[in-house]
Write a structure and sequence with these properties.
Elements (H helix, E strand, L loop, with lengths): L12 H13 L3 E3 L1 H14 L1 H10 L21 E5 L2 E4 L4 E4 L14 H13 L9 H11 L7 E5 L2 H16 L3 E5 L35 E4 L4 H11 L5 E6 L4 H4 L7 H12 L2 E5 L11 H6 L5 E5 L10 E5 L1 H4 L23 H17 L1 H22 L5 E5 L2 E5 L16 H24 L2 E2 L5 E3 L6 H15 L2 E3 L2
Parallel strand pairs: 4-14, 6-7, 6-8, 8-9, 9-10
Antiparallel strand pairs: 1-16, 2-3, 3-4, 5-11, 10-11, 12-13, 13-15
Helix pairs in contact: 2-14, 4-12, 5-12, 7-9, 13-15
Length: 488
């Protein structure tokens, strides 16, 4: 674990959970009512053009926005420019960008070096041909030479598609059906994976519009409960076996629920023991934790690796699947051959634009040691938030996995909801509603102070986040924290 990784020091997992559990025993600590109203009034006065456009958009778009990450309280803002560590909205306001498009822009937004390469490609080839282009090979070669668990790479359109492909390959390769995931993890929105999302123990709780049969072979185990995974693996042997265990290697929801440092190694051992494949969902961690991903950091080689986000450098069609030869043979493309295939596709998958943008982004990340630089920014931000939490005697919890930073002010996703204990669900849902409202208000307060976050609880730092920018961000966080009160 050298200095090329974003994670400089692995956090104390037990301490994080202890502090979050304490947070959940307390009433929410929220922005004072008069200050919150001041923030909401600021949106009306400073973001009037955004508000008018969103009102018009609601006539044509469900809810007024097309993307789940769009901030929507008190209303979504319309952003017109992204540059380095900054975002600019329709009304001309400038914000420090800790959303970073949901994670893919490790170099910062719209880096000139990549933009020029993309422009050159558009001048000569255009964005898509439907046929082979040299950058398909270049990006695949780059990834295969750096990832221990990747002999071959197939580029797809999204992380969701990468997970779908991984599960098909696992079932073909093992002849088994069951898939085990960690409760609370997000592995895309395919029918079989909308299961145990965000909060462990919820099973099909959010699977609206999805027939029950679609997740018949999907199972979940609570994070860090290694015995629970082995129990499922044992039981599954009686009904045909387990095809794969799929994990986010830093923990569910991009490390929101962190896992013990040796947890991935233990799962690897169990997969070998019971004949299941190990799938690493590195949609967030690939080329953000390090040049050879979380598998390089943890020293664990998965059978299959799902890619997304950074793999196209912030350009569209960011997804793919890599793995060992014996498994990836099931993804052989083209019309020929007689071997069984895992059916995948996509007219725009591996298009020249995305492949070139991804390739040059990865080259630049390596050249600039961007993972480590972004990780240092994440460390500085987290330590600064921890100091502010202590200064204002707040029960909040700040922690990070390098450039993936977390700030729990309500603990919404840690509320215990277990569908196997239905009598507890009404009380849990009531608590979630209260704590979610607090998350929304905190996110709005940050935004009003010029800080763009993911739902007010997660932040991604980039190479563009200099010490000066992080220090300015901390001043803005402090302007929120100094107006916090305990709710009754």
């Amino acid at each position: 674990m050298g200095n090329n990784f974003a994670i400089s020091e692995y956090h104390d997992v037990q301490e994080i959970y202890t502090r979050v559990e304490k947070l959940l025993t307390l009433p929410v600590y929220r922005v004072k009512r008069d200050k919150m109203q001041e923030y909401l009034d600021r949106f009306d006065s400073n973001c009037a053009k955004s508000k008018a456009m969103i009102d018009e958009a609601k006539k044509y778009i469900p809810g007024g926005v097309q993307h789940n990450l769009a901030f929507n309280y008190p209303f979504p803002l319309v952003f017109t420019k992204a540059e380095d560590a900054w975002l600019y909205d329709l009304d001309g306001n400038r914000y420090i960008d800790f959303l970073q498009a949901g994670g893919p822009t490790v170099l910062g937004s719209n880096p000139p070096a990549i933009k020029e390469k993309v422009k050159n490609l558009l001048d000569t080839c255009g964005p898509v041909t439907g046929l082979f282009h040299e950058y398909e090979m270049k990006i695949a070669e780059f990834i295969c030479k750096r990832y221990p668990g990747v002999d071959k790479f197939r580029m797809l359109g999204s992380g969701t598609e990468g997970v779908m492909a991984a599960i098909r390959v696992a079932r073909l390769s093992t002849g088994k059906k069951k898939i085990i995931k960690l409760g609370g993890a997000y592995h895309g929105w395919s029918d079989q994976m909308v299961y145990g999302m965000r909060i462990p123990g919820t099973g099909r709780f959010e699977a609206h519009g999805i027939p029950a049969a679609c997740s018949k072979h999907t199972q979940e185990a609570f994070p860090n409960k290694i015995k629970a995974i082995e129990k499922l693996l044992k039981r599954n042997r009686l009904v045909g076996g387990t095809a794969a265990v799929i994990v986010e290697p830093v923990g569910p929801e991009s490390g929101t629920r962190p896992i013990d440092q040796d947890y991935n190694k233990k799962i690897r051992e169990l997969c070998d023991k019971y004949g299941a494949l190990l799938i690493f969902d590195e949609v967030v961690t690939a080329f953000r934790i390090g040049l050879n991903g979380a598998q390089g950091y943890f020293g664990v080689v998965p059978d299959l690796t799902v890619f997304g986000k950074v793999v196209a450098g912030g350009y569209p069609s960011a997804g793919g699947l890599g793995g060992l030869d014996k498994h990836m043979d099931y993804l052989t493309a083209g019309l020929g051959g007689t071997k069984k295939k895992a059916m995948v596709g996509g007219t725009l998958a591996a298009n020249p634009l995305s492949s070139a943008a991804g390739y040059y982004t990865l080259v630049e990340i390596e050249k600039q040691n961007a993972c480590a630089v972004a990780g240092k920014a994440g460390d500085r931000l987290t330590k600064g938030l921890q100091a502010l939490i202590e200064k204002y005697e707040l029960p909040y919890v700040a922690y990070n996995q390098g450039s993936i930073c977390h700030l729990e002010t309500a603990g919404t996703m840690f509320v215990d909801v277990n569908i196997k204990r239905p009598w507890t669900i009404p009380k849990s849902l009531k608590q979630i509603k209260v704590r979610k409202k607090n998350m929304e208000e905190m996110g709005a307060a940050y935004m009003a102070e010029g800080l763009v976050t993911l739902a007010g609880s997660r932040m991604y730092t980039s190479m563009a986040d200099t010490d000066e920018i992080i220090d300015e961000a901390l001043q803005r966080f402090e302007r929120v924290f100094q107006h916090i009160e305990r709710s009754e």
